[in-house]
Design a protein that fits this description.
The protein is mainly α. It contains 20 helices and 6 strands. The strands form 3 sheets. The chain has a two-stranded antiparallel ribbon. It has a two-stranded parallel sheet with strand order 3-4. A two-stranded antiparallel ribbon has the order 5-6. Helix 7 runs antiparallel to helix 8. The two termini are 37 Å apart.
C-alpha cells in the first residue's frame, strides 16, 4: 500500500528513482510562507462557510503557525518522499493535530494550491525587483549629477558620432529602467489574481467563499474560470519576459562598462572591490561583475524560452509539465535581484576619467555635423552643407589635422559662408550646449531629465511602497 497522501488508489509504493525525479521540494520549499498563508486563509474560509468546525480551524491555524516557526528556525526536515512543499507541510500538520489537519485539504487541490503559492510568491518578488530597479536608478541619477558637465563621444555603429554629456548617456539607462519598472507593475497586476477555489480543474461541490479568501490574501481579483485558474502561467511568462528585457538593458550597460574600462578607452575605472585579478598576469584588473551580468542575461532569456516551449502544446487543464515553471523563475528572480544590486554598487563606486573623455572629443570628427549645421544657419541647404562638411573632413584626414586646426583661409576655400565664429561653433562644449531640443544632450535638457527622473523615482517609490504594504498585510 502506498504511503503517499494521495496513495489510496495505489497498491504499492512509488519507485524511489521516480520519487526523486518528480519531487520539487528541493526548490519549491522557498514558497513555505506563501503555502502556510494560503492554508490559513483557506481554513478560515472553510470554518466561515461551516465546512469545518471552529475548533478544527483553530487547531489548523495554530499548527500551521508552529510549522512556520519551525521552518524559519531551521528545525523542519523536508522529505523528498513527500514531493513538494504542500505535502511536506500537510503531513507535518496532520502528524501534529490528527484529523483536523486532514480536513484542511477539503475543497481544494494541489493544482489550485500550487497556483496560489506561485501567484503570491511572484507578487512578493516582483515588488522586491522593483525596489532594486529604483536603487539602480538612484545610483544613475547620483552619477549623472556628479559628472553633469563631463563631455564624451557619443557613438553609432561603435564609431564616434557626436559629442554628448556623460550624464546624458547615464540617463538613457535610467529611461530603460523606468520602462522595466512599469513592465513589472504589469506583471504584478497579472499575478494579483487568485486561483484558489478552482479545485483540480472544475471547481468544488462545497459552498466555498472565494471572495473571502481573496480579501484575506489581498488579491485584487479572482479567476472566473476554473480551468484557466489552474493552467494559467501567463504571469510567469510575463515576469520572465520583463526580466529578460531588464537583463538585456543591464547587458548593454555591461558591454559599455567593459569597453570603457579598457586601456583603449580608459573612460572609467571601476572600484577595486568590484573587480578581480589574474592568477597569472599581475597587472590585470578584470571587470568580472559586468562580464557576469552580461553572461547571466543569456541564462534569464533561456528561462523565458524554456517556459514558452513548455506551455505551447499543453492541453487544459493542469499537466505535470507545469512543475517546470518554478526552477526557471526562481533562478531568474535571484539573478535579476543580484544583478541590479551589484550594478548599483558598481555605478556608485566607479571613477570617471573626465580628462580622457574630453580629450577624445577634441581628437575626432564628431563635430562634423555641427559644421554642417553652421552652414545651414548661414543659408546653405543641408545636403550642400553636408557635402561641404564631408569635404572638410576629407581635407583634414589628408593633412593630418582636426577641424578645429583648420585656418580661416582653408575654411573659406570650402565655402565663403564660413566666418570667424566657426571656430566657436565647433567646440565640443558648443556642440553639446546647442543640442537643446527636448530630450537632447544639452546641459539644460539633461538637467531637465534629471529633475524629471527624481520625480519619477518618487512616484515609483510610492507605487512599490503601497504594494509592499499590501503584501505585508498578508498573514
Amino acid at each position: 500500500m502506498s504511503e503517499k497522501l494521495w496513495g489510496g488508489r495505489f497498491s504499492k509504493s512509488t519507485d524511489q528513482m521516480i520519487n526523486e525525479f518528480q519531487a520539487s521540494i528541493s526548490f519549491d520549499k522557498r514558497m513555505y510562507h506563501e503555502d502556510i498563508a494560503g492554508s490559513i486563509a483557506h481554513a478560515n474560509m472553510l470554518a466561515k462557510c461551516g465546512i469545518i468546525s471552529a475548533e478544527d480551524r483553530d487547531a489548523i491555524v495554530k499548527g500551521l503557525k508552529e510549522i512556520l516557526q519551525q521552518i524559519e528556525a531551521g528545525e523542519f526536515d523536508f522529505s523528498v518522499d513527500l514531493e513538494d512543499i504542500h505535502m511536506n507541510i500537510e503531513k507535518r500538520l496532520t502528524d501534529a493535530i490528527g484529523d483536523a489537519g486532514r480536513r484542511l485539504h477539503t475543497a481544494r487541490s494541489r493544482n489550485d494550491q500550487v497556483a496560489l503559492d506561485t501567484h503570491m510568491y511572484v507578487r512578493r518578488e516582483t515588488v522586491a525587483v522593483q525596489k532594486e530597479i529604483e536603487n539602480l536608478q538612484r545610483a544613475l541619477v547620483e552619477a549623472a549629477e556628479k559628472y553633469s558637465d563631463v563631455i564624451m563621444p557619443g557613438y553609432t555603429h561603435l564609431q564616434r558620432a557626436q559629442p554628448i554629456l556623460f550624464s546624458h548617456q547615464l540617463m538613457a539607462y535610467f529611461s530603460m529602467l523606468s520602462r522595466d519598472f512599469a513592465r513589472f507593475k504589469g506583471v504584478y497586476d497579472r499575478a494579483d489574481i487568485m486561483p484558489l477555489g478552482a479545485g483540480a480543474l472544475a471547481g468544488t461541490t462545497f459552498p466555498i467563499d472565494r471572495e473571502y479568501v481573496a480579501q484575506q490574501l489581498n488579491f485584487q481579483s479572482i479567476y472566473n474560470n476554473s480551468l484557466d485558474a489552474v493552467s494559467d502561467r501567463d504571469y510567469i511568462m510575463e515576469f520572465l519576459s520583463a526580466a529578460s528585457i531588464l537583463m538585456v538593458h543591464l547587458s548593454r550597460l555591461s558591454e559599455e562598462t567593459i569597453l570603457w574600462c579598457t586601456r583603449e578607452f580608459s573612460f572609467i575605472e571601476l572600484d577595486d572591490a568590484h573587480c578581480t585579478g589574474s592568477s597569472m598576469m599581475p597587472q590585470k584588473k578584470n571587470p568580472d561583475v559586468s562580464e557576469l551580468v552580461r553572461g547571466k542575461t543569456g541564462r534569464v532569456v533561456g528561462h523565458l524560452m524554456a517556459m514558452l516551449a513548455t506551455v505551447k502544446g499543453l492541453p487544459l487543464a493542469y499537466n505535470k509539465d507545469l512543475q517546470e515553471d518554478k526552477e526557471g523563475i526562481f533562478d531568474a528572480i535571484d539573478t535579476v535581484k543580484f544583478s541590479l544590486a551589484v550594478y548599483a554598487q558598481l555605478i556608485r563606486g566607479m571613477k570617471v576619467h573626465r580628462d580622457v573623455m574630453e580629450k577624445a572629443v577634441t581628437e575626432d570628427f564628431s563635430n562634423a555635423t555641427d559644421l554642417a549645421d553652421y552652414l545651414v544657419k548661414k543659408g546653405l541647404p543641408f545636403r550642400k552643407a553636408h557635402a561641404v562638411s564631408g569635404h572638410a573632413v576629407h581635407y583634414c584626414i589628408e593633412h593630418h589635422k582636426w577641424l578645429e586646426d583648420m585656418t580661416m583661409a582653408e575654411f573659406k576655400e570650402l565655402s565663403p559662408l564660413f566666418e570667424d565664429d566657426v571656430k566657436e561653433a565647433i567646440l565640443p562644449t558648443t556642440c553639446v550646449k546647442n543640442r537643446n531640443s527636448f530630450g537632447g544632450t544639452s546641459y539644460h535638457q539633461v538637467d531637465l531629465q534629471i529633475e524629471a527622473a527624481k520625480k519619477l523615482l518618487q512616484a515609483e517609490e510610492a507605487c512599490s511602497d503601497a504594494t509592499a504594504r499590501k503584501q505585508a498585510n498578508v498573514e
